Amino acid sequence: MDVLTENFSLYGKGFLGTVELTVYASALALVLGFLMASCRVAPVGSLRVLGTVWVTVLRNTPLTLLFFAVLLGLPRFGLVLPFQLFAVIALGCYTSAFICEVLRSGINTVPKGQGEAARSLGMNFGQTLSTVVLPQAFRSVIPPVGSTLIALAKNSAIAGAFSVTELLGTYKTLNELGYSIIWSFIWIAVGYLIITLTISAVFNVMEKRWGVAR
């Protein structure tokens, strides 16, 4: 317990850093994922190509490489931002590709007749998607979206290698202070467990309330 009690502020700072990364990157991933999923099912060919390229590139790019591209590449083009914001961009964009595919799979579960009926009533694509298709698709994608955001929380550990304050990065300071590396990692693991179990609990509540009855 000495590792935790004597370094509680260090653990707390790292824990809050990971929570912030997870919350902000999740918000970005959900917004971008929704936009790209809309593009992938849009009737406009150029939008479908945009969505397909976005998903294909990001899903097949290692996250560490994406961090290098964002944190080290963007400043070369004159975009200078705090490293934490760069980490949010990298995590959010990467996860958005997976959110996009989850949402698209949910959209595909909605019978085509629903969309055709909406169009026959004079609704355009945006109205059909937002008022008819997505409310039904939302019910079936709650569990996989939750799993994707849990993966995002764990992936945030990579940010520590790029001078971003987060939970895993605390082991470097603890190691320099001479604390047991095993116990340092045990308490780090407990911190990640708290975050992931919280996300899981939130989505379990959402699934019970709005999910598809099985």
UniProtKB/TrEMBL annotation:
Keywords: Amino-acid transport, Cell membrane, Membrane, Transmembrane, Transmembrane helix, Transport
Subcellular location per the Swiss-Prot or TrEMBL entry: Cell membrane
PROSITE patterns registered for this protein in UniProt: ABC_TM1
Hydrolase found in the keyword field: no
UniProt cross-references to InterPro entries, sorted A to Z: AA_ABC_transptr_permease_3TM, ArtM/GltK/GlnP/TcyL/YhdX-like, MetI-like, MetI-like_sf
Primary subcellular site in the record, as a coarse category: membrane
Bilayer topology: Multi-pass membrane protein
Residue ranges of domain ABC transmembrane type-1 in the record: 15-203
PANTHER family from the UniProt entry: AMINO-ACID ABC TRANSPORTER PERMEASE PROTEIN YHDX-RELATED, MEMBRANE COMPONENT OF AMINO ACID ABC TRANSPORTER
The UniProt record lists the keyword Transmembrane: yes
Record field: transmembrane: 15-37, 49-74, 80-100, 181-206
Protein name as catalogued: Amino acid ABC transporter permease
SUPFAM superfamilies the record matches: MetI-like
Organism: Streptomyces badius
Family to which this protein belongs: Belongs to the binding-protein-dependent transport system permease family. HisMQ subfamily.
